[in-house]
Amino acid sequence: MQNSSDDSGVKVAMFDTKTYDKEYFDKLNPQKIQLRTIAASLNEQTVDLAKGCEVVCIFVNDKCDANTVMALEKIGVRLIALRCAGFNNVDLEACKRHNISVVRVPEYSPHAVAEHSVALMMMLNRQLHKAYMRNRAGQYVLDGLVGFDMFGKTVAVLGTGKIGACVIEILSGFGCKILAYDKYPNPRLGEMSNVDYTSIENIISAADIITLHIPLSDESKHIINDAAIGKMKRGVMLINTSRGGLVDTSALIRGLKTGIIGSAGLDVYEEEANIFFHDISNQVLNDEVFARLTTFNNVIITSHQAFLTQEALSNIAETTIENILEYAAGKRFDELSNSVVC
Ligand code: NAI
C-alpha cells in the first residue's frame, strides 16, 4: 500500500490495484488527487483500508454490498468510482440510503472486448490452443484440428450496445450472418443487410456461435441455463466476455458433456472473484465447478482479460480521474457526468 505524503487534494483509496493500473493512473494523475493504492479487494473486511479517504476506486470483483456500503459511509466515503462499465457488484439502493454517489467508466474501449471475443472464437474454431501445445512438443500433425469457415456462419449476438455493435462489425467483415437480440435494438445495425433482430428463442436455436454482450442484472442472470441450452444447435460455440452470472456454469458443463455445446470461450466466470486476478498456482483449487470446467479441451478460459489493452487502460484512468475531479468540484449523484443511478 502506498500513501501520498502531500495533504492537499481529494484522497482516493484505489482497491484491487495491479501494476498496470498504477502505471496508467500515475501517468495521468494530476496533483489534485492523492492516490492510495491497495492490492486487496474491497469488501466488508477491508473497508478500513480506506480510512481517511472520501473516495474509493474499485474494479469488477470488489464487493460493494449493503454492509460494505454502510461501513464505507461510517468512515466518511462519499464517492464510489468504478474503473469499469458494469456495476452489478455495487448495491445502488444502499448507496442512495447512505448518501454515497457512484460513478463509472461507461465506455473505455468496446473494441478491446469485442476483439477479444472474436479472438476466443477464432482460437476455438481453428483450435490454436491445441496447435500451440502440439507444436511446442514437436507434434506437427493436423489430425483433430479441423475448423470451419467463419464466412456464412450464423452468429447470435445477445446485447447490441457498444461492445455487441463492435462484434457485429468485425464479424460482418468475415461474412457472417448476424442474429441480434436486444431490449432496445439499434436501428443502424438493423439496417445492415446481414443483421436481423429477432427473439432470443430464435437466435439461440439458429446460431452456430452465440456471444453474450448484455449486462448482468436480476433479469439476465443465468440467461444461458439448461432450458436455453436445450434449444441450441448441437455443437454450438458459446462465448462469454460479459459477466459470469449470465451463464449457469453447471448447466454449461452439462451442455459440454452432452456435446450440445461444442466449445466455449469464457473471459468471465460467475464465481471468479477468488480466482481471476490472483496467482493461485501454489494453492489447491477449491471450486469444484471451475475445476471441472478447466478439464475440457474445448473450453478456453481467460481471466477477465478482454478489456486489457493499452487504449482501454489509458481511457479508464482518464475517465476515472475526470469523474473524481468532478466530485472534488462539488458535483454529487446525477450531477456527475458518469453517475450510476438506481
Ligand atoms: P452497453 O450498455 O453499451 O450495452 C448493453 C446492451 O445490452 C444494451 O444495448 C442494452 O439495451 C442491452 N440489454 C441490457 N439488458 C438486457 C436484457 N436483459 N436483455 C436484452 N438486452 C439487454 O454495454 P457494453 O459497453 O456493450 O458492455 C456490455 C457488458 O460487457 C458490460 O455490462 C460488462 O458486463 C461487459 N464488459 C466486460 C469486460 C471484460 O473485460 N470482460 C469489459 C467491459 C465490459
CATH architecture classification name of the largest domain: 3-Layer(aba) Sandwich
The number of helical segments is: 12
Distance between the termini: 32 Å
Strand order of the largest sheet: 8-7-6-9-10-11-12
Can you offer a commentary on this structure?
The protein folds into 2 domains: 10-108 and 309-335, NAD(P)-binding Rossmann-like Domain (Rossmann fold); 110-301, 3-Layer(aba) Sandwich (Rossmann fold). The chain is globular, with a radius of gyration of 21 Å. With 342 residues, it is α/β, with parallel strands linked by helices. The protein has a 7-stranded parallel β-sheet, with helices on both faces. A 5-stranded parallel β-sheet has the order 2-1-3-4-5. Helix content is 34%, strand content 15%. Helix 1 packs across helix 12 and helix 4 (110-125) packs across helix 6. Residues 1-5 have low confidence and may be disordered. 1,4-dihydronicotinamide adenine dinucleotide binds next to helix 4 and helix 6. Residues 85-86, 110, 113, 159-164, 182-184, 213-216, 219-220, 241-243, 267-268, 304, 306-307 line the site of 1,4-dihydronicotinamide adenine dinucleotide.
Summarize this entry quickly:
By secondary structure, the protein is of the alpha/beta class. It has helices at residues 19-28, 66-74, 92-97, 110-125, 128-136, 162-174, 187-190, 200-206, 226-231, 249-258, 288-293, 310-328, and strands at 10-14, 33-37, 55-58, 79-82, 101-103, 154-158, 177-181, 195-197, 209-212, 236-240, 261-266, 299-301.
